Amino acid sequence: MIKKLAIIVTAMSMLSTTSVLAQETVTSYNCDFSPSCEVAPGIYGAMASTVMSKFNLSIGGNVRLDYAHNTNAVGPLSPAAPGGALTPGTKDESILTAKASRFWLKVDGPAFLGAKTNSVIEMDFYGGGSSANEFGNLRMRHAYGSLNWSNTQLLFGQYWDVFGPAFADTIDQRQGAATGTPNNPRVPQIRVTQKIALTPNNSLKIIVAAQNPVQDAASTGAGSMSRYLGADGKGAYGSMVNIAGQAVFNSKVLGVSPGFMGLGMNPLQLGLFGMTGSMKLVGNNDVDNYGYGIYGFVPILKSQDGKNRAMTLSLEGQVYRASGLDVQGATNGAPLNSVAPANSGLLGVFPDKTGARAIGYYGQLKCYVTQNLGLTAGHLARKAENYSAYPSNFNKKNQLSYVNATYDINAAIRVGSEYEHMESTYGNLKAGTNGYAQNNTFRMVAYYFF
Q: From start to end of 282-393, where are the E strands?
């Protein structure tokens, strides 16, 4: 009897184990962007399991490994230092890093006056003191809460800068910074987004925001302003909160095609954007900061069902003009002139308090040959306007050309490669220095989305 009981218990235990293993093999894929779920990675999609905190909490992100080879030893980001730092004897370099890996938390909270409420916190590992890979410290990227009605959103916290809606889809994640698309810093702000339905297929989206004045680096301390204040740090500076906005017309008449990173589908979009603010320099002198431009996204070859990416083609473009938007990468510097008059004995005095001005443009084509394989090519440039007014060396023009390919192996893993060619030219240089620099970058990347 005891032997029979032991056999029965053992059999039940094996059946239970088999049942658990069978359950573990059942996988739920992200179907947000594709009918073929297993090839649809998505940072902000449905690839997160809901857990409980005070409210419903989702977690997600990606592990990312980057390899880059530069033809000049310039570091992982920039082609050259002002003054023509590159020389014929400069060595090349190769780098690996995983610090671009990201982690996010999303909370779905209680309703309020008919609005859904949620919040997002997103981090990467480029925080202070993380110059070496083994010191990858957390850095806040996004941290915001929002109230979402059917046609209205109120957002407060840290989110993308409103100025310049275009994101050059380079896999280096710089998004064309300082070469034709501003680097879209994440800034503290409060914004209202209103959608206005015009017809069943057409709508207008309007964004109005008050943003932290990041362009003069006031938020990071006086040390970062030494080039404006003088060597002894004397003087004062202050800022006014920026007012920024967008007005974008959306239409479904051409269907939809893949947008940024191929993670979502966009309709035809045509829009205007702008920003205005000011900062006070030594002597209580105001320097105006502003920018304005136009943006467009065109589905040239649309998705056949609104989800599948195979045989789609998208065109995206942007043109802007800006003054004093330094940190955004839209101009070369904030004030035009940060050098005191020769032999004046004064530090931090500005002969010309005009903001540095520049124009920028960007164009990109994105094609998905199959659901998995995406190809992207683009060119962008930023050019200073007032050459003759600069008293010392300055960046006349930056330009970037790029082509990349990505392939989605499954729902979690994406691999990609990219070639970039960067050029910089400089003006008002000292005798004997080089006014031209270039760099070629070959990059490979692997993601694991979770």
A: 285-301, 312-323, 357-368, 373-384
